Structure prediction request, 402 residues.
Amino acid sequence: MFDDAWLTDLLRARGGLLTDAGVASELAATLATRSPVVDGTGAVTRELLAALADTWERGWQPADVVHAARKEATAASVPLLVALMAEDARRTDAAARAPEVWLGQLRELGVPAAGDPGVVGAWQGREGRPPVDAWRIVLRLAGLLRTTARLEVLVPPPSRWGPGTRREAAATPDDARVLRRIRALLAKAESTEFPEEAEALTAKAQELMTRHAVDTALLDDRPGERSDVATRRVHVDDPYVLAKVQLLGAVADANGVRLVWYRGLGIATLVGIATDLDTVELLFTSLLLQVGQALGAAERAACRRSGSRAFRRAFLLGYAGRIGERLTSARERATREAAAEQGVDLLPVLRSRQVAVDHAFAELFPRVRSGRGRASVDGSGFRVGRAAADSADVGTRRAPLR
Prediction:
């Protein structure tokens, strides 16, 4: 056995070492021989909960931490992390005090409503993992939580919850209705085995997005108010993360949304008008579906193997660039058409909204500099990707995205 002080020092002060998979595996083998029960004294649970609380203070939200755990500490650590979040929510009285966006993430992650003070021991019992595996997961998760980078605080952490904690504004009935229809269409598009049906469902979803975005801009009688500007994090998964971020950036740019990419974390922060953030996130999801289908068709036509990484990456980059051009052109055309139909000049309204977004972005990220990476790409893949983007449905038959 070993005492709690030694274990506390390992999990707290030596966290950086635990991010190395090899080191964590060697330590796990040693610890398992000395203590088959991972958390006999409760010290492991205390340290992991403390590390999680520190992570909240560094600007992380529940969905961010789970995303990082899947990426850096293996998917096997997620059930333990979810159990830790449940106990953290119980101790901080999240159900009564947390902002709505925080509670929404807990629900989406399947965090239980009731926590368990003996988190790690209960988890080991439920999972039935051998001691070596259980220790390895604990060590990797501890290393992750102790070394998370500092992010901008978009949602108050538990230490700042109080009677005045602002909850997320509820969506209007019209917003909620449209978003439900869009999500339902995209869910059907993702589940169908028939490409033609998926394309039709996605096109309909995009049509709803574009109509709603334009209607919101026309009906907004408070253009450019700071209360309209919101933030959101989007998680981008491997493979080809940078190419996918280029696609997200193209959609964001065309909709007046600013984006910051945390390289290496797989996390992007969006700043924009709240309804535009919904549009960007949903359209990005839809286009990921379309580009996946288009890439598969292109590889079959080119008789390329699925392992052709250079071709796939170039295809995605070409697709993203062309989608950005199409959306920007559609936005300009929609502005002209809407202005002609309504007999009003929309440019002051749109300019006021963009100024508010840019001001909020500069306050949140005062030291961020724009930049674009350069890298060689497969020329044929890039050209084929741009051609596929010309066939993508971006919902321009009625009114293009703003």
Remarks:
- The mean pLDDT is 81.
- Strands lie at 229-235, 258-262, 267-273.
- The radius of gyration is 24 Å.
